[in-house]
Amino acid sequence: MSDELERLETALRSNEPMEKDHLDNLVADVARLPEEEARILLDRLRTELGARAVPLLEAVAVSMGGRMAVVATQQLGRLRDSSAASALQRVAAQTGSGEVRKTARRGLHALASLSVRPAREETVAGKKISRDSLTLALASPFDGLGDRALWLVSDDRGDVELLGLILNEEKGIVDAFSVEMARSRFDREASKVLNNDKLPWVELPVDYCRQLLAEAHPRNGATSTPLPLEYIAWRDRIGRPERAYERPLVYEVINAAEVRWDPRYLDRSANLLGLELFQAWLLQPEQLAEFLREREAARESSLLLVGVDPEVRYRMIVDRAIQTLFDATRRALYKRRLEETAYLLWKLERYEAAKTALAAAMGLEPPDRPLMNHPFLRALMEWNLEAVEAMVRGERTKDIKQGVKLHLPY
């Protein structure tokens, strides 16, 4: 064993705190070792000394360049100790190497998935750093299953770190991924979703996205849906909402009283089905099967109800489908979906459509008119029955959108 190896192990096995000069000397000893021998040493120190090896591993990660800085950072990511997580946080903030920074963040995510996290605040160069600053949030429309995508963005030294999430209105947070990319690439990806002619995304206030996540999280527990590991890794960085949101954001930009007391908005709400944003709102075929069979029977049977023509019978089928499928739970889900879509339309400067969507949402509150007479809901159910029937028959499939593929830049 080389003299450098002996000095390193002796110094680290002692429980005495190391001064910076002493630590610098140890880093210099590591630098003098052949690369393979240094790699084996760092792995052995981490295995045998655990958290006591953190100061040296951090110093190597920050001070040395090239492959050894990456190796030291990887070793920190394998230590299930909060001191290692804190060190990784400092390495990510201080290093000038993009590869080391990525390795540190991967290590932080891996440790967070094991419930090992750094302290809420660390001090670097005299400045406090806490959760990473989230600078931008983008949101997609809803698809037919009640899924919606969110992007949360953190800028760092010209690069962009992106957390993508999919929220389901019943199950909670169902998927998450994180990726680091150059600012130029992110700008291209963001442009694709923001300028999509048919299903454009919009920017949301970052804090409101925190609110959406805070609302979604309990649904995971209620439905026994596992939380995605990437979301767990980012949870502390996202944090809690900084203000209380008593109602969805749309009520802060649209005068709800004006919309509620002008019946023309609700009366026109069936026209929303002409917009691409709503044509993906299909229920599942199995939910509609009973009513599709009734429609088929009404079409083929020569024994119609006495005094009832086919159109009236079809209307009765739609009435029963609405009564059966839109119980209090689904009514509440669609109310919130319409409220969020109304805000999206407002952000797209489609103000009349936004007010109409909000009217449709408020019309789903404990109704002052029978639910079967709700214009949007009735048009939606008729669209569902016709579209799914055509899909089952293999007709007009190019015009039917069962769901929206959420744009995720993996």
Topology:
Elements: H1 3-13, H2 20-32, H3 35-49, H4 54-63, H5 66-77, H6 82-94, H7 98-113, E1 122-124, E2 127-129, E3 136-139, E4 147-156, E5 159-168, E6 172-182, H8 183-194, E7 202-203, H9 206-223, H10 229-238, H11 256-260, H12 263-267, H13 285-300, H14 310-325, H15 328-347, H16 351-362, H17 375-393
Antiparallel strand pairs: 1-2, 3-4, 3-7, 4-5, 5-6
Helix pairs in contact: 1-2, 2-4, 3-5, 4-5, 4-6, 5-7, 6-7, 7-10, 13-14, 13-17, 14-17, 15-16
Features:
single chain, alpha+beta, two-stranded antiparallel ribbon, five-stranded antiparallel beta sheet, 54% helix, 410 residues
- What's the number of structural domains? 3
Computed CA radius of gyration, to the nearest angstrom? 29 Å
N-to-C order of helices and strands: HHHHHHHEEEEEEHEHHHHHHHHH
Mean pLDDT: 81
Strand order of the largest sheet: 6-5-4-3-7
Rough outline: elongated
Could you tell me how far the N terminus lies from the C terminus, measured between alpha carbons in angstroms? 46 Å
Largest sheet: 5 strands, antiparallel
Instruction: Label the structural class.
Output: alpha+beta
Q: Residue ranges: pLDDT <50 for 5 or more in a row?
A: 120-132, 396-410
Helicity, in percent? Answer: 40-55%
Q: How much of the sequence is in beta strands? A: 5-15%
Extended strand count:
7
Query: Count of DSSP helices?
Result: 17
